[in-house]
C-alpha cells in the first residue's frame, strides 16, 4: 500500500486555508518571508513552490531575492529588517546557502518566534526538552503522514537512517518523544552492518541522500517505509534530462513493505504543508 503524501498534504493545505480565512475575517493575514540567495535551479523551484502554496492558502508572501555574492552582513541586515516587520510572521532562508556563508550564524539571526523552519537552536533545544516549538517541517510532516495513515508508533521499533540536523536528528527525537513512544535507533555512515539495523525496523525512515541506500533484503516484511531522499538521476527520456528517485529501491521494497512512500509524491509535499502550518502557528502566537 502506498502512502499518498500528495493527498494528505492537500488535506492539510485545505485545513490551513480554512484557518487562514478565519484569521483574515478577524483582520489578520499571516505572512511568510522567503529569502533566496542566488539562482540554483533546485532552490528556485522549492522557493517558487512555497510561495505558490502560500498564495493558494491565503498566506501573504514576502519574496526576498538576493545575489549569490551578497555579503553576509547584508543578509543579516535583511533578516533583522524582516524580524522587525510586523506583517511577517515567518522567515525562511532557503538552504543550502551559496558557498562562503556561515549558515548557522544566518539561522541564529532569525527571531525564534518567526523560525517557521524550526532550525534555530532555540527551536531545536525546545524540541529536545519536549517543549512546544516549531518543529522542522520534513520530520514533522513524516509524523503527520504516519498519524493520518493510522500507523501505530507506540512500542514499535523505528530505525532512522541519517542524522542531519534538519531531518534525521529531529526525526529520531519526534519518534521517541512522549505520546509517539517509538523505540528509536539512529544510523549513520559509521553504523556497522546497516542491513542488520534496518531489518529490525517496524518503521524505517531513510534520509541518507543516496539512491539505493535501502534494498529489499534490508527491510522486514510488513514494515512501514518512509523514503525522504530526493535524488536527481540522469534520464534521457525526460524533457528535463533527469528524474527524481528516493534513497530506497522502490520497485524492490514496495512488495515487502506494508506501507511505503513514493518519490516523488510522498514526503516532499508534506514539507511544504507543514511550513504553512508553522506559519499559521507563528501568526496565531504573535498576534494573540
Ligand atoms: P545530509 O545532511 O547529507 O545527511 C545525510 C545523512 O545520512 C548523514 O547523517 C549521513 O551520515 C547519513 N548517510 C549517508 N549515507 C549513508 C549510508 N550509506 N548509510 C548510513 N547513513 C548514511 O542529508 P539531509 O539533508 O538529511 O537529506 C537527506 C535526503 O533527504 C536528501 O536526499 C535530501 O534531498 C532529502 N530531503 C528531502 C526533503 C523533502 O522534503 N522530501 C527535505 C529534506 C531533505 P554521516 O552523518 O555519518 O555523514
Short description:
The chain is α/β, with parallel strands linked by helices and 288 residues long.
Structure characterization notes:
This protein has 288 residues and is an alpha/beta fold. The protein is 40% helix and 16% strand. It has 10 helices and 10 strands. The protein has helices at 5-25, 41-57, 72-84, 103-109, 121-128, 137-148, 168-176, 194-198, 250-253, 267-286, and strands at residues 31-37, 60-66, 90-93, 157-161, 183-187, 203-206, 224-227, 231-234, 242-245, 259-260. A 5-stranded parallel beta sheet has the order 5-4-6-7-10. It has a 3-stranded parallel beta sheet with strand order 2-1-3, sandwiched between helices. α1 runs parallel beside α10 (267-286), α6 (137-148) packs across α7 and α6 packs across α10 (267-286). The radius of gyration is 19 Å and the shape is globular. The chain starts with a helix and ends with a helix. Bound molecules: NADP nicotinamide-adenine-dinucleotide phosphate (NAP). Residues 138, 161-164, 166-168, 187-191, 194, 207-210, 213, 228-231, 267-268, 271 line the site of NADP nicotinamide-adenine-dinucleotide phosphate. NADP nicotinamide-adenine-dinucleotide phosphate binds at residues 138, 161-164, 166-168, 187-191, 194, 207-210, 213, 228-231, 267-268, 271.
